[in-house]
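Weekly puzzle thread! Below is a chain. First person to post its structure in token form gets bragging rights.
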Amino acid sequence: MAETATSNADDRLVYEVPEAGALLGLSRNGSYEAAKRGDIPTIRIGKLLRVPKHALHALLARAGAAE
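Winning reply:
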């Protein structure tokens, strides 16, 4: 049986905003507020707002290196 594109989260290139926020310990509303402020990097694909996996992990790496 062939795997679907959504079968493995590690294979995806983008997260949904609440999913990315949950990785950061944020609520659904907090996630969208952080995205609106620009604290979470986002891209728009049509009407969808998504968080690029690479950009989120790079943001976290920079934050960790600043300590």
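Puzzle host: Confirmed. Bonus trivia for everyone else. The CA atoms of residues 41 and 55 lie 6 Å apart.
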